[in-house]
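Weekly structure sync, notes
Attendees: PL (lead), two postdocs, one rotation student
Agenda item 3: pending single-chain targets
PL asked that the sequence for the first pending target be pasted directly into the notes so everyone works from the same version. It is reproduced below exactly as submitted, 236 residues in total.
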Amino acid sequence: MKEGTALVTVVVDVDDTLIYTEHRMQFVWLELLGREIPLEAVETLSFEQIFMKYASQEQKARVREFQKRFWNVLLCLEEAGLDSLKYHQPIPFAADVLQEWNKISTIVYLTGRTENTHSLTLNELKKFGFPTHNTHLVMFKPEDYARAKGEDPTGPTLMDAKLNLFSKICDSSNVVRVIDDHPGYFPIFKQFEIPDRIGFLRPKKYKIQNYLDHGATRVIRTWKELRNDPPKPEES
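Predicted structure, written out during the meeting:
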C-alpha cells in the first residue's frame, strides 16, 4: 500500500457498468437521423455500422457532419444531449454493492463522460443510490474526443485519454480492483498490475473470452455476484 493511503481504492466505470445507456442511445440516434433505431442494433453495432445501415443516402454524403454531431449530443455539448439523460436506468444491485464497498474503500468513478457534465453525473449517481461521499469522479475532457469526432485524425485516442487518467489515479491511490464493461481498456489495467480486473459482461456485444484475452482476471454477468466479495488489500 502506498504510504499515507488509509483505504484501498476501487476504480469503476459508469456507463453500461453502473448505468444502462441503450435507451438513451436510441434517443440520440433518433435526434441524429430522424428515425428510430432498433434496440438490438444500438446494443451490438458501432457508430459506423449503425450509420451506414440506417442513414439515408443524403445523410451518408454528410457523414463527417453527423459524426461530429453524434458526439456533441452524446457528450451533452448540445441541449438534446441533456434531454437524453432521462432515459438512463441503473443496473440492478450495483448501487447496493458500491454502498457496502464505500464503507471500507475509496470509490473512484472513471468515466468517459466529459467534465461539462460533472454536476449532472454526480446528481444522477445520487438519484440512483450510488455513493458520492468518500468518492472521486474522474472524467474525460471534451477535447479528448477530437479524434473520435473527426476534428483531429492524428490526435490522442480515447485509449490514450483513459491511460493518462488511470495512471494519475494509480499514482495517488492503492488500486486493488477495477470494473469496466469495455474489453479494450483491460490492457491498461493489466499494465498497472491491478490484482482484481473485473469485466462486466455485455453479452450482446462481447463474449467472456474477449475480456479475458485483453487482461481481465474474471468476468461477471450481474453485480449480484459481488455482494459478498469486498475489495481487499493486496497480499504482501
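Discussion points:
- The chain is about 40% helix and 15% strand.
- The two ends are 9 Å apart (CA to CA).
Action: rotation student to compare against the earlier draft before next sync.
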